[in-house]
From TrEMBL:
Superkingdom of this protein's organism: Eukaryota
Alphabetical UniProt keywords: Aminotransferase, Transferase
Annotated EC: 2.6.1.52
The protein, known as: Phosphoserine aminotransferase protein
Length: 424
């Protein structure tokens, strides 16, 4: 009986150690995802969590859909598989990252390494604090004026799409925020000449959204605040870490992670340290940049698992050669897709001015608008999902963030050409 009990326990332990869910995200295909015990990496790393993780075997991309969602968006396959391997027992510690204390040594290593790798990617100097927050970029719409302005201070906003418009309207509750340029009359298809911006000479900051997720408009360069004591602030949610950025040009950069560097639930803020410590008295403690920075993003329980995933993504971007190499890949993907649109003799149309087209979010319409629903449905049948445009503008939108493989864009372009040929 004792031998039988021991054998049962051993079998159960093996079952837990080798557990891998056989997911089939595409119901039109039979599940093919499986693992043999011989291919499972051995987790022999100690609980100090300082050694390099074991290599994670890859699965065929055919087992996954090409997800063109604007966010939450596709993540690198290698990151998902690494997280899967760590999910039950992180680095041999006997716990999942979702279970461990945010005050423990394991998570302390995770969050510090994530910050260090991000600093390496963007060459962030010690003059800036990096903080991991909650509430999405939308919460920063309020946190920004609360931390940097008094109620009577002015702030300038360049409104190039829905998100910068929302940011300005929220800021108006806490300071004298003003829209100094709006692309709304042109349906948010342009970015203004910086020389034409009528800035307030007393503005505390100049705010932009570096990439408008909905409308597909991206800043290729950045304006300079007129007031020499002012700063430039950018919401970089949908092109964060897609290319190199000179952080020193900004007083603050903030980004929701769920586009390019992680899952939903964590927001990353990069704030110049000398700007912190003068928040309005009404500022909630959770929105105070200094409080968050002084407590190393641990004033309360942070979104631990989301931060862990961001850390894996930062590792992946560094392994690719950094953001210079990442940008080259993104330029190639975007060029292929825009060339297909522009070369379709008007069958597909991108309304955005060519000089400011986004590398990340590509909106387009079909000349025969009645075909758009059919296009989206047929693409889904071919394993390409989330191509429907935002509900506020309609049409089609392909979000091709860092983790979208070149093969996904090539398959979409091939489908576009085939669809056009079938609908002359």
């Amino acid at each position: 009986m004792a031998a039988a009990t021991a054998a049962t326990a051993t079998a159960a332990g093996t079952q837990h150690a080798l557990f891998r869910p056989s997911l089939n995200p595409n119901p039109l295909r039979s599940p093919t995802f499986s693992r043999s015990p011989s291919k499972i990496p051995s987790l022999s790393i100690s609980c100090t969590a300082v050694r390099s993780p074991p290599a994670t075997p890859s699965i065929a991309t055919k087992d996954r859909l090409f997800n063109f969602a604007a966010g939450p968006a596709t993540l690198p396959e290698s990151v998902i598989l690494k997280a899967q391997a760590d999910l039950f027992n992180y680095q041999g510690c006997g716990m999942s990252v979702m279970e461990m204390s945010h005050r423990g040594k394991e998570f302390d290593f995770i969050i510090k390494k994530a910050e260090s790798d991000l600093r390496s990617l963007l060459s962030i100097s010690s003059d800036y604090a990096v903080i991991f927050l909650q509430g999405g970029a939308t919460t920063q719409f309020a946190a920004l004026p609360l931390n940097l302005c008094s109620p009577d201070d002015s702030a300038d906003y360049v409104v190039t799409g829905s998100w910068s418009d929302k940011a300005c309207k929220e800021a108006q509750k806490f300071c004298k925020a003003k829209t100094i340029w709006s692309g709304k009359p042109d349906k948010y298809t342009k970015i203004p000449s910086f020389d034409s911006l009528e800035q307030n000479s007393n503005a505390k900051y100049l705010h932009i959204c570096s990439n408008e997720t909905i409308h597909g408009v991206e800043f290729k360069d950045y304006p300079t605040p007129l007031n020499e004591n002012s700063i430039l602030v950018a919401d970089m949610s949908s092109n964060f870490c897609s290319k190199p950025v000179d952080v020193s040009k900004f007083g603050m950069i903030y980004a929701g992670a769920q586009k390019n560097v992680g899952p939903s639930g964590v927001t990353i803020a990069i704030v110049r340290k000398d700007l912190m410590g003068s928040s309005q008295p009404i500022t909630p403690v959770m929105l105070d940049f200094k409080t968050q920075a002084d407590n190393a993003s641990l004033y309360n329980t942070p979104p631990c698992f989301a931060i862990y995933i961001c850390g894996l993504v930062f590792e992946d971007l560094l392994q690719q050669g950094g953001l210079v190499e990442v940008e080259k890949k993104n330029v190639k993907k975007a060029s292929i897709l825009y060339d297909a649109i522009d070369g379709s003799d008007g069958f597909y149309v991108c309304p955005v001015e060519k000089s400011v087209r986004s590398m990340m979010n590509v909106p387009f319409t079909l000349k025969k608008s009645e075909l758009e629903k059919k296009f989206i449905e047929e693409a889904a049948l071919e394993g390409m999902v989330q191509l429907k445009g935002h509900r506020s503008v309609g049409g089609v939108r392909a979000s091709i963030y860092n983790a979208m493989p070149l093969a996904g864009v090539e398959k979409l372009v091939a489908f576009m050409k085939d669809f056009q040929a079938r609908h002359p």
